[in-house]
């Protein structure tokens, strides 16, 4: 089997996500167990962002800062283009999807870009890797502040932060996500080498934290009747809308980068960093921003878009990797 075809097969983490959703559907946590897991989940999210801070090399992030035009395009694509596309989809979505799933699509559109996969695909496609490291990292840092503000502006209902205002959402994100991230960055000079040596083990912590959030989120939603509200036709329609959203984002990112005269290497970076959405950041943010009963519907579009973007971008990266170098 060729490499592009192998990348179309869902990875192990996606399989674990599906198993977690299935487990929550059959054996959802309830009562005291749900309360204990809720507290464990909060601690796991803090650990997740602490490790993100400890893993991020400031030197690698600063190395691509000079290409400011590229970074502005990526940020505009992530936090301006996507939310506008989400709003533009409302007439199409109305009557096709439950309102809660449209909230999930809007939330998806407010999320920052991925870090690891954006950099990996950019490297595979022979793009500007240094700029990809900087753009993807900056997108996640900016998203800590911008995503809750966008959620407050675009999504009137569903926010669970005290008072429900965008400022309260930002403060909640800062407290639960940014402070652990900054602590990891502060301690990197002392623990960075150890973190770099144990990346496979820490990957398990990263993914385990996300799986725990998914389990508790879907458990609460199942207890609230998630699968009675969501039909197979709605699920298929959601998958189609995610495909359309990704296709438009990829097309616009390509068109804009060419109109602005970027090199092919920079274009690749813009396309991958500007069209992807982070599951690793999205699931913890949803846990902070939304009521527990709404979490299942909110993170379902994020999970689906995550797998679709990986498969599509793998094919694009393989195609770009085969191009002939410029003489």
Q: How does this model look, in words?
A:
With 327 residues, this protein is mainly α. The chain has helices spanning 3-7, 12-26, 31-55, 58-62, 68-88, 90-93, 99-110, 116-124, 129-154, 166-197, 199-223, 226-229, 232-259, 264-275, 279-289, 295-321. α9 (129-154) packs antiparallel against α10 (166-197) and α13 crosses α16. The radius of gyration is 19 Å and the shape is globular. The chain starts with a helix and ends in a 6-residue tail after the last helix.
Short characterization:
The protein has 16 helices and no strands.
List the helices and strands and how they pair.
Blueprint: H1 3-7, H2 12-26, H3 31-55, H4 58-62, H5 68-88, H6 90-93, H7 99-110, H8 116-124, H9 129-154, H10 166-197, H11 199-223, H12 226-229, H13 232-259, H14 264-275, H15 279-289, H16 295-321
Organism: Massilia norwichensis
Keywords: Membrane, Transmembrane, Transmembrane helix
Protein name: Bile acid:sodium symporter
DSSP strand tally: 0
Helix content: over 70%
Counting helices, strands and paired strands, the structural category is: mainly alpha
Number of domains: 1
Q: What is the gyration radius calculated from CA atoms?
A: 19 Å
Q: In whole angstroms, how far apart are the ends?
A: 32 Å
Key structural traits:
327 residues, 80% helix, globular, Na+/H+ antiporter like fold
């Amino acid at each position: 089997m060729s490499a592009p075809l192998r990348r179309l097969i869902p990875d192990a983490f996606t399989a674990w996500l599906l198993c977690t959703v299935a487990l929550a559907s059959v054996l959802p946590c309830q009562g005291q167990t749900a309360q204990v897991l809720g507290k464990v989940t909060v601690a796991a999210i803090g650990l997740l962002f602490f490790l993100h801070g400890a893993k991020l090399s400031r030197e690698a992030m600063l190395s691509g800062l000079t290409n400011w035009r590229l970074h502005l395009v990526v940020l505009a694509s992530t936090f301006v283009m996507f939310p506008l596309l989400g709003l533009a989809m409302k007439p199409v979505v109305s009557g096709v999807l439950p309102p809660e799933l449209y909230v999930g699509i809007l939330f998806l559109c407010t999320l920052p870009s991925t870090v690891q996969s954006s950099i990996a695909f950019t490297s595979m496609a022979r793009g500007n890797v240094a700029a990809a490291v900087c753009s993807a990292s900056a997108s996640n840092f900016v998203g800590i502040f911008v995503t809750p503000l966008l959620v407050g502006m675009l999504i009137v209902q569903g926010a669970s932060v005290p008072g429900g205002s965008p400022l309260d959402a930002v403060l909640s994100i800062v407290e639960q996500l940014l402070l652990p991230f900054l602590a990891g960055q502060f301690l990197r000079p002392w623990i960075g080498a150890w973190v770099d040596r144990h990346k496979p083990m820490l990957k398990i912590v990263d993914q385990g934290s996300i799986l725990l959030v998914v389990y508790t989120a879907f458990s609460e939603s199942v207890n609230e009747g998630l699968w009675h509200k969501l039909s197979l036709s709605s699920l298929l329609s959601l998958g189609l809308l995610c495909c359309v959203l990704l296709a438009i984002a990829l097309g616009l990112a390509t068109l804009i980068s060419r109109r602005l005269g970027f090199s092919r290497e920079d274009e690749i970076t813009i396309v991958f960093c500007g069209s992807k959405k982070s599951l690793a950041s999205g699931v913890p943010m949803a846990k902070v921003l939304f009521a527990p009963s709404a979490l299942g519907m909110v993170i379902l579009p994020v999970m689906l878009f995550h797998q679709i973007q990986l498969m599509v971008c793998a094919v694009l990266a393989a195609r770009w990797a085969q191009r002939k170098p410029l003489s």
